[in-house]
Amino acid sequence: QKLDKTVLNSLPDTISRPAYDRADLSPGIVHIGVGNFHRAHQAIYLDRLFSLGEGHDWAIVGAGLKPYDAAMRERLKPQDWLTTVVELDPKGLSARICGSMIDFVDVDPAALIRRLVEPGIRIVSMTITEGGYYVDANTGGFDSGHPEIQADLENPDHPRTVFGVLVAALMKRRAAGVAPFTVMSCDNLPENGHMAKQAVVGFARALSADAADWIAEHVAFPNGMVDCITPATGDRERNLVRDTFGIEDAAPVVCEPFRQWVLEDNFPTGRPALEKVGVEFVRDVAPYELMKLRILNGGHAAIAYPSALLGHYFVHDAMADPLIRDFLRKLEEDEILPTVPEIPGVSFDDYLTTITERFSNPAVGDTIPRLCLDGSNRQPKFILPTIQDRLDRGLPIKGLALETALWCRYCLGTDEAGNAIRLEDDNAGKLSAWAASVYDTSSGEFEMPDLLGNLACEPAFFQAFREAARTIATLGVTETLKAYLKG
Ligand code: NAD
Question: How far apart are CA 185 and CA 197, in angstroms?
Fold first, then answer.
């Protein structure tokens, strides 16, 4: 059946659907960037809350400024903004029709500003990708010189960027004496609230100090840590929803069954009672971000290269290989977990167990080549700080040095069976030169690249790395991993 509100009652019982009357909902949130992740994550939390009979004045109005969003609006409109969300549980797929979005603003900045001025809208949330925050790569500050930002600054009454639109709407609310909305970033970047604030206030500051000061003082930008692996939708996903559940959905979402949302409780104009559906409200999100960065992202970064060298393609196949699974566990337990500051009430052992299960989920179909992408960007975020932290505390780094040596071995461009590896990395040239100097020369002399930051000149790290690389060169990856696991 083609999905729309008229078929909700005739769907098979196996498909969950809104346990509330959507006609009773009223809008409280405008969400900018209605991609897949929003519909797998925030929209589902609200759908669950509405199903409890709560928070019916917090329905979502979709919005966006990109051609992507206009196309999404066209797909969702004929289905009354409903989305089929399929959870990829290895024990069996399940489908839920999510009804928490009740409208979608025309993809037009002026229409969006008009909507954002309505007093009922108390939260503006967004998933506009990590790249959407106009961060100056050199300073880490707001890039007010970006051509799109410059264009908005020249024409602040007719902005086209998210931040131009938010500032214009906030100024209208201020002039009308309407309390400002809270800006809630749900993008996957550390301190996403601070980054959103930096962009909104940065944009306002380039217009007027008064506007910037007012926003900085009156608008809340809670930080949040979000988690739920949500692949892009293609024909495979549309067909899955049609063939398995009998629903014709133009834009379904598939995602893993795991979801986490840790949010700073900083909503001066109110918020839905999301704690009733599993959202964790905390005073400071930073420790949770560090947990995710080091244990989850660090775990992904650690298994990527040995798995590729051993010829694994899917992450779940790599996790079924005892060498990889045990390497991950030992590395995490011995060297990563102990560096993450304790969080009251959170067990890192349980978190690691969940991660191991998530990585092992065959239904997600995540790939090792994806995890291997862009190592020169990921290793400095997910692994190298853990090494530095341990060195600063005088702790051993054998496993992490081995991880770095395996990454370097991967950069040589062939796997253990001699198959070619294509290095996809902005710094591919530097990395292969480094790998060649470490693994390909008879002199045994090499230098650490500046890509490693301060670690490049840490003697203790150099020694451990060299020892690991020598072992890999002599014994090969399999025997090196076995030796590490015995140690
Ligand atoms: P998606 O490609 O489905 O959607 C991206 C959305 O961002 C679209 O609505 C697009 O129009 C909008 N966008 C992109 N650049 C923009 C810009 N400069 N200004 C305004 N809007 C812009 O991607 P997705 O899977 O929904 O992921 C979106 C974000 O969600 C990610 O970048 C990440 O920060 C976060 N996230 C995703 C996942 C995941 O597994 N997909 C997990 C956790 C967090």
Answer: 9
Q: What is the mean pLDDT of residues 56-85?
A: 98
What is the reported pLDDT for 441?
Answer: 72
C-alpha span between 329 and 295 (Å, rounded): 10
In this prediction, residue 358 has a pLDDT band, given cuts at 50, 70 and 90, of very high
**8 A C-beta contact, residue 409 and residue 469:** yes
Distance CA 270, CA 280 (A): 16
Question: Apex CA 419: angle with CA 413 and CA 421, to 5°?
Answer: 35
Helix (H) / strand (E) containing 317:
helix 315-320
Spell out which residues line ligand 1, taking CB within 6 angstroms. Answer: 33-38, 64-66, 68-69, 127-130, 132, 162, 187-188, 226, 228-230
Tokens of 43: 């929209």
Residue to substitute in 129, 152, 200, 230 for testing ligand 1 pocket (most ligand atoms within 8 angstroms of CB): 129
Count CB-CB contacts under 10 A for residue 462: 17
Tally of CB atoms within 10 A around 246: 13
Scored b (16 or more CB within 10 A) or e, 89-103 reads eeeebebbbbbbbbb
By C-alpha distance, which of 399, 379, 215, 238 is closest to 297?
A: 379
3-state secondary structure of 307: helix
Q: Provide the pLDDT for residue 231.
A: 87
pLDDT attached to residue 334: 98
The Å distance, Cα 129 to ligand 1 centre, comes to: 4
Q: Between the CA of residue 36 and those of 43, 96, 129, 228, 272, what are the distances in Å?
A: 10, 15, 11, 11, 22
Count of H-run helices and E-run strands, the chain: 20, 11
Q: How far is the CA of 478 from the centre of ligand 1 (A)?
A: 38
pLDDT tens by residue, 276-323? 999 999 999 999 999 999 999 999 999 999 999 999 999 999 999 999
**Sheet strand arrangement including 224-227:** 224-227, 260-264, 280-282
Give the position, in ligand 1's atom list, of the atom nearest the Cα of 37.
26
Q: Which of 31, 36, 37 to mutate to test the pocket of ligand 1 (most atoms within 8 A of CB)?
A: 37
pLDDT at 487: 85
Q: What pLDDT does 462 receive?
A: 96
ipTM value for the complex: 0.99
Cα 118 to Cα 140: distance, rounded to the nearest angstrom: 33
Rounded Cα distance, 294 and 338, in Å = 11
Instruction: Please tell me the predicted confidence (pLDDT) of residue 245.
Output: 95
Mean pLDDT of 366-376: 94
Q: What is the pLDDT of residues 440-480, one digit of tens each?
A: 877 778 999 999 999 999 999 999 999 999 999 999 999 99
Global pTM value: 0.93
